[in-house]
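Give me C-alpha cells for this 760-residue protein.
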Amino acid sequence: MELKTSVQGYPRIGEEREWKRTLESYWKKEFDQSTFQVKMKDIRLDRLKKLKQSDLDIIPVGDFSYYDHMLDTATMFGLIPNRFKHQAESNSLDLYFAMARGSKNAEACEMTKWYNTNYHYIVPEFENDWVPKLTENKPLNAFLEAKEELNINGKPVIIGPYSFLSLSKGYPKEKFSYYLDILLTLYAKVIGQLTEAGADLIQIDEPHLVTSLTDDDIEIVKDIYEKLADLVPNSKILLQTYFDSVSHYEQIVHLPVAGIGLDMVYDKEKHVQYIKDFGFPNDKILSLGCIDGKNIWKTDLNNSFSIVKGIREYLPNHQLHLQSSCSLLHSPVSLGKEKALNDNLVNGLAFADEKLEELRLLKGALTDKDKVLRDWEEHQQKVDLFKDKYQRSNDKREGKIAQSYRSLPFSERHTIQQKKWQLPILPTTTIGSFPQTLDMRKARTSYRRGELTEETYQGMVEEKIQRWITIQESLGLDVFVHGEFERNDMVEYFGEKLNGFAVTTNGWVQSYGSRCVKPPVIYADVTFDKPMTVRESAYAQSLTDKPVKGMLTGPVTILNWSFERNDIPAKAVADQIAEALTSEIYHLEQSGVEMIQVDEPALREGLPLKVENQAEYLKWAVESFRSATYKVKDTTQIHTHMCYSEFHEMIDSIKDMDADVISIETSKSHGKLIRVFETNVYDKGIGLGVYDIHSPRIPKVEEMSKVIEESLGVLPPFLFWVNPDCGLKTRTEDETVSALKNMVEATHLMREKVKSSVKI
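Here you go.
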C-alpha cells in the first residue's frame, strides 16, 4: 500500500508576520507594486522551501493569497461588482484590494467567517450582467512558479464550485444551477490547463459537503463532478472536505474523482463507522486528516496510529494520504519563538511546523517504526507529561445556570433605565475600541518587557482615555467608551488576566486581510483572579457626566476565539468563564460603572455546521451569557455586540440572551436584516451598525441617514440605537473622527424627522 503525507494549506503570514507588514506597507504607499510583488514572491517561495524541507510527499501550491482565497477565485473568474468598474481602469492589484477594503467611491465587499473558524473571507457577488471569463489562472501560475523556481511538482489548491457558489451572494436561489453551469466551464479551463502543465493531483476544496445537505443538494453535487469528469477527463481531482463529517458519505465517495479527503479529527467516529459500514472505492485515494489543523494541541500519535492502522487493515490495497484535518492556515506558524511559556505547557503544544513533524512521525511509524522510534517516544512522553500536569476538570456545573434570568423583564427594566439615564431618542454610541496608535502598541510592548514602569504606562493609558473622552464630548455622542487603549486584543487581554489561560509570544493567525490575532490558550480550569477592567473604566467615567460603558468580552467569544482544550466539553469551559465574568461585572458596578457591554461577536460563529446539532449549542451558549450578566442591578444596562448574525436563524436565541441593548455588525448586509424584522419582532434595544469599520472609506451623512431610516421602518424609534458596526481599533484617528461626526449629524437629522412624524 502506498502511503504519502500532505497538508491542505500552510500559513501565509510568515514566522514574523512579514506578509502582514508587506501588505500594510504597500497600502501606505511605502513602495510600488513591482517591489510589492517581489517581496510577496520571496515570502511565497520561503514557505514552499520550508514545506519541501519538512519531508512532505505532496506540497500544496496556490493556497497563498494577497488577501483571501475566495476573493482570489472571484477575481479570477471576473466577478467584479459594478461599483468597482471604475477601478478596473487602474491596475488589477488596486482593484483587488478595493474589493477587499473599499475605495473612496465604493463600499468593500461583504466579509464573513469561514465556516466555524476564526478566519474571515470576502463574499463573492454575482450580478446579472456578469461576463464570465478566466482573467488569470492563478493556481496554474502558482504551480508553474513552484516547479520552475524550486523543482516542486505541487498539488494545486482550489475552492470547489459547489462551496464557492454556496458561499456567494447576489443571485436568487432558483438560479443556483444556472450560475453553477457557467462556473463549471471556467473551472474546467483552470483544471484542464493545470493537467496539461503536469499537475499530478489537484485539490478541490468542498467544505460545504460537511453541512446538512438535502437529497436535492447531493444530486447537484453529483451533477457537478460528473460534468467535470466529462469536461476534463484526464485530470486527477482530490475532493477535499474538512471541519466535520461529510453528509451523504455513500454518494460522495463514489463521485468520479481520483480521491476523497476526510476529516478524521472532528467527528472522526462517524467517518470510521462509514468506512466500516460502506467501504471505500478501490480505485480512489483516501486522504485522512488525522492531525488537527485548527487547534494547537499535540496529537496523541498512539490514537492516530490506531485509527490509521485500523483503516489500513480494513482497506489493504488502497492508496492512503496522511494529512492535517484542514489547512494549517488556522494554526500559528512555529513554536520556535515561544520562550516565555512554561515547559509543562509547551509539552502539549504543536503549531503548524510541529504538525508537519507529526505527519512525518506517523508515516514513519506505519512504514518503518524503528527509524522514528526515538522521536516517537519523545513526542508521546511530552503528551503524557502535559496530560498528567493538567488533568481534566471534575467541576460539575452543568444545569446550574439554566434559570439565570434578570429579576425583572426587559419592559420593566427599560422604564427604570430610561429614568436613570435620560437618553435621547436614537442614542449614539460606539462599539468599544478607538484607534490603536503606534505609540501605545510600543508602550504595551515596553511595559511587558519591564522597560516602562506601571506608573508611566498607566499614565500613558489615562492620557489616551482623557483625550478620547474629550473627542467624544466634542462629537456629541450620548454614551461613551474608554477606548480600550490598554488592550492588545479583546480576547487575549482577558486571557492574560484570568487563571487557566496562557498567552503566546508569536502565536499569530490570520483573521482577515492583514489583521492577525494571537488567541490565548485555555489549558486548565478558568477562574477569576482580580478586577481586570475596573481601573480604566472607572477613570473614564470620572471624566464625564455622560455614561461610559464598561467593556467586557463574553464567555462564548472568549471560548471560541481561544485555543481551547479539546478534551473538556466546551460548555463546561464557557460556564467557568461566565462565572469569572460575573465577578468582574460586580466590581464594575461597585466602582460606579453601571452600563456594561458584554460582547459576543463569536456566538453565532460557534454554531455547529450541521443544523441538527445547533439547538443544543445555542441553548448552552445563551445560558452562559445570561449566567455572566443576570446578577446585575435592575438599573444596570447590559449591552452586547454580535458579528455577522444571520438574525432570522437565531432570533429566539438572541432574545433569550436578555440583553438590554444589542448592536449587530450589519453594514454590508443591512437590507437583508431589515427584511428579517419585517416578519420577526425584536422587543429590546438594538443598534444595526450604520457603517463599515473594516474599510478606510468615510461614509456620507446621507448614506447613514438612509440606513437609520430603513431601520426605523421596521424597528421602534424608542428602542433603536445608532452606532458603527464594530470597534474602531484598526482605523486612523482622522477616519474615526470624520465618520463619527457624520454619524452624529445623520442621527440628529433623523431625530427631527422622528419627532415630526409618528411613522417614517
